[in-house]
Amino acid sequence: MTSASSNSASRNPLAGFFGVFRYSRRALGLVWETSHWMTLGLMLCTLVAGVLPAVAAWVGQLIVDGVVDAMEAHRAASDPELLVLITPVLWLVALEGLIIGLIAMAQRGLAAQQSLLRALLGQKVNVMILEKAGRLSLSQFEDSELYDKLTRARREASTRPLALVNKTFGLLQNAISLASFGVLLVQFSPWALLLLVAGALPVFVSEAKFSGDAFRLFRWRSPQTRMQMYLETVLAREDSIKEVKLFGLEGLFLQRYRDIFTRLFREERLLTLRRETWGFLLGLLGTLTFYAAYGWVVVETIAGTLTLGEMTMYLMVFKQGQAALSASLTAISGMYEDNLYLSNLYEYLEQPVEDDGGTLTQGTHPGDGLRFEGVSFAYPGGEPVLHDIDLHLAPGQSLALVGENGSGKTTLIKLLTRLYHPTQGRILLDGSDLRDWQTEALRERIGVIFQDFVRYQLQVGENLGVGDTHAFDDQDRWQEAARHGMADDFIARMTSGYQTQLGRWFKGGQELSGGQWQKIALSRAYMREKADILVLDEPTAAMDAAAEAEIFARFREHGRDKMTILISHRFSTVRSAEQILVIDRGEIIERGTHDQLLAADGRYATLFRLQAKGYR
Ligand SMILES: Nc1ncnc2c1ncn2[C@@H]1O[C@H](COP(=O)(O)OP(=O)(O)OP(=O)(O)O)[C@@H](O)[C@H]1O
């Protein structure tokens, strides 16, 4: 919802009231797409459950009047034939029973369809959310507001859209009931109808106003709610609990969690108290009108204007009419929350997706390799982190990036893999700008493992298979990749080999050491058979020295006709690269081979000697 419309809602309770329908049409559309038949079923049941109570009340009147007539006839007749007298009334009783049965059937039908639709709709919305997530760019993911929307959208995906539709239908059902009661009531007196409406109107207006306030309150507090969710995650997830325990953070974080709740609760309590107090006071008006109408109907009956049956009917109509009104009010206040959810869901789903690359599957100069031409880059809303980078890497060449933490090495790889676009300059692969490459074709050319690779809670083989979805289940390819990544030895020792479940999330899962995980990730990169650009971003930090030396021997061997890029803080691993770039605060300050850089006696030489001294 835009702030303009929320402001107008706060000024005008009526606009606030109509605001509750803002997303009803879209929610209905969603339900319709999920199942045409069940949506129609819902409508039919709503209609039946809406109209029949009034019919039941009317038949009830006929029964009472029929009984009174039959009693009189029975008394008057000298030789009454009981069966003849009671048969019409019994038919009416049977009809009433049938109507009540139909109402029960409609209500059961509503419940059954709602429960099935809830499951289907939850799945549908979740799939929509996840499909959209797959199309978002990395920078969109890093936008906290969008991420917030995504998390909130997922949290209540299975309940909210249907809840909104149910409430809309419920409202419709009550409106139909009210209209049909109105038809009956107006025959008694149009004033009686007016009395019913007048009694309910104040509480209706107040409910619309407070629901609008609730809507704005929920929206306003969303960042705090997100912090609460984050703390829940940190306190209850296996990957963070180790540190939480060792640093004794439970108390601290729990306190913060409580404080946020207390702050939020204060606002909510105030609103609830105001809402319920006004609701009660204005609701008294409704009760007052009911008893006024009650008295009126009684007087008219005693005066003989109404039959006993009509009196029963009108009292029932009045009572049920008020119940329908109060159910409508409850629905309206709930609908605000559902609207909030749906506004959030649609804002997320309608997020524009960045144009995803071009159509090239081959460059204009095949074999030219990779070129950065005057590339600069700043993260969205941030300072520049790369400045005027020029480099060329031909097929078969190896490149190493060296630099302090935060100097921009990983960022350079993110640009190369087109997770971000340069803010200035361009990156060419085989003579063509990366932007013009078809995403699929580009990704096939690159095998990369980042420092923060993913530890999939899947089987060992699948952990490798994700490296190339075309060979996801290919056991031979798993084994080959594992050999290259030096993971084959320890996999062979595992109880179920490539079928061993990894991680602790699922039953029987086996946890690996940091170095073993790295070997899995490395093997994953080797799954990309067609990749001729191999990027390893600190791939061996957790490995032992022997494993590391072996890994690089294999990496060089495997990458002989490929372009390889290596990021490492260990000089022993970068020294053999044909080209070493020293990056400092986003700029290339030195470049050359290991020997050239030592001879130049600059930053590289200093750092190299520093590290070498540590080993002596
Ligand atoms: N997603 C991001 N959004 C905004 N700024 C970022 C993001 N990722 C990194 N940065 C910033 O960009 C700069 C370069 O980070 P980068 O990760 O490229 O460094 P690095 O050289 O790979 O460091 P390290 O050796 O620690 O891995 C840092 O100042 C960092 O704060």
Automatic annotation (TrEMBL):
Domain ABC transmembrane type-1: residue ranges: 40-337
Keywords from the named record: ATP-binding, Cell membrane, Membrane, Nucleotide-binding, Transmembrane, Transmembrane helix, Transport
Topology with respect to the bilayer: Multi-pass membrane protein
GO cellular component, one term: plasma membrane
Transmembrane segments: 40-63, 83-106, 164-185, 191-210, 278-297
PANTHER family: ATP-BINDING CASSETTE SUB-FAMILY B MEMBER 10, MITOCHONDRIAL (PTHR43394:SF1), ATP-DEPENDENT PERMEASE MDL1, MITOCHONDRIAL (PTHR43394)
Name of protein: ATP-binding cassette, subfamily B
